[in-house]
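Project outcomes to date are best conveyed with an example. Our students and postdoctoral researchers have been running inverse folding experiments weekly, and each run begins with a structure described purely in tokens. The record below, which covers 158 residues, was selected by the lab manager from last quarter's runs and is presented without edits.
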């Protein structure tokens, strides 16, 4: 099963990086507010450069340059594409991917939908209406790393 990871990243702004393993790389989006489990909450997701698969487990501090700051693995697991006969890469190229996450925090269906092209294409990350949808706020209620149990504030205090 292909993997996904959501890293919380305290760079020049605090944000989440949502990454899906697709065709040997991590396709990546910066999600300022992080994911929601509420289908009525549409979260902006700005497409950013692909990352190496090596980055899927990265937690720690980026010392200098672009992206400098602390990173925790906020959630991680595997995903599968929803829908018959379409690959994740093809669906993303077409601007619309529905998938099912099996993470430690997040479970269930999500959709990524591209809303604008350009140098930094904008997408919306939206929880699908299924039995896993709820009005909880996992970003606020479960801030800790699924790898170390530490919050990004604890990492920044070191
Ligand atoms: Mn980032």
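After processing, the design step wrote out the following sequence:
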């Amino acid at each position: 099963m292909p993997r996904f990871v959501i890293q919380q990243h305290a760079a020049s702004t605090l944000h989440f990086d949502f990454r899906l393993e697709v065709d040997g790389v991590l396709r990546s989006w910066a999600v300022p507010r992080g994911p929601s489990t509420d289908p009525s909450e549409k979260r902006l997701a700005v497409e950013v450069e692909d990352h190496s698969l090596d980055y899927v487990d990265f937690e720690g501090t980026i010392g200098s340059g672009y992206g400098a700051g602390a990173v925790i693995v906020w959630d991680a697991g595997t995903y599968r594409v929803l829908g018959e006969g379409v690959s994740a890469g093809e669906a993303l190229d077409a601007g619309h991917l529905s998938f099912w996450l099996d993470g430690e925090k997040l479970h269930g269906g999500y959709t990524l939908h591209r809303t604008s092209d350009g140098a930094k294409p904008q997408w919306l990350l939206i929880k699908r209406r299924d039995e896993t949808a709820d009005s909880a706020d996992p970003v606020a209620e479960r801030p800790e790393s699924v790898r170390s149990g530490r919050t990004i504030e604890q990492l920044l205090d070191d």
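The chain has one domain: 3-157. The two ends are 35 Å apart (CA to CA). The training component of this project remains on track.
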